[in-house]
Design the sequence.
């Protein structure tokens, strides 16, 4: 491959670029808004990965879903350095300083992926990844902060969707109104939502309830 090659779907990406993963010897870095993007691409790559360093940056909303949170912990247990971003990230894979893979949209069917080997472009993508990485929270710190929130997400979303008052929702959840409002604010931040209604919609879209 040279320059930029666009492929469609995870199967074609792995078929066309799988050897690039295998050839990585220095680093594999990945940023993802949703785990389904990369799990379909390289579900077994990490245990046999020959890169000396593996970094994974996940969007905060993915970590509210227990299955995805467990996946992040598995990555960490295999030696990956995992961080969580409170902001949307450009879905990216970096292989050493040789290859950048950028995920496109799904507006025309199977998702597109741009496989880039142009050195100048790869370095530009890396600089953006590094900026996002520096702003991320280490997994261990995130887990401590989010354990309680993850446990109450379905009930908080149900209360929001049902239009319950803060006082009624807090009573139903067995917490103070102040704590309930803090949990709602944390959920909205995690989902990047600007309103309670939007938080409920996004939570349902992500399969959190």
Sequence:
């Amino acid at each position: 491959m040279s320059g930029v090659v666009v492929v469609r779907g995870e199967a074609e990406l792995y078929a066309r670029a799988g050897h690039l993963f295998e050839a990585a010897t220095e680093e594999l870095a990945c940023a993802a808004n949703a785990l389904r993007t990369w799990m379909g691409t390289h579900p077994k790559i990490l245990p046999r990965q020959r890169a000396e360093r593996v970094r994974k940056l996940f969007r905060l909303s993915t970590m509210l879903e227990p299955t995805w949170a467990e996946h992040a912990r598995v990555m960490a247990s295999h030696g990956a350095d995992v961080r969580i971003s409170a902001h949307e990230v450009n879905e990216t894979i970096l292989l050493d300083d040789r290859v950048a893979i950028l995920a496109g949209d799904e507006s025309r069917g199977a998702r597109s992926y741009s496989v880039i080997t142009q050195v100048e472009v790869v370095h530009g993508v890396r600089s953006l990844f590094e900026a996002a990485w520096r702003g991320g929270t280490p997994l261990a710190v995130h887990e401590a902060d989010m354990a309680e929130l993850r446990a109450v997400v379905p009930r908080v979303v149900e209360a929001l969707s049902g239009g319950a008052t803060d006082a009624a929702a807090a009573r139903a959840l067995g917490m103070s109104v102040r704590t309930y409002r803090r949990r709602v604010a944390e959920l909205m931040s995690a989902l990047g939502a600007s309103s309670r209604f939007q938080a409920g919609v996004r939570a349902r879209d992500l399969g959190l309830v």
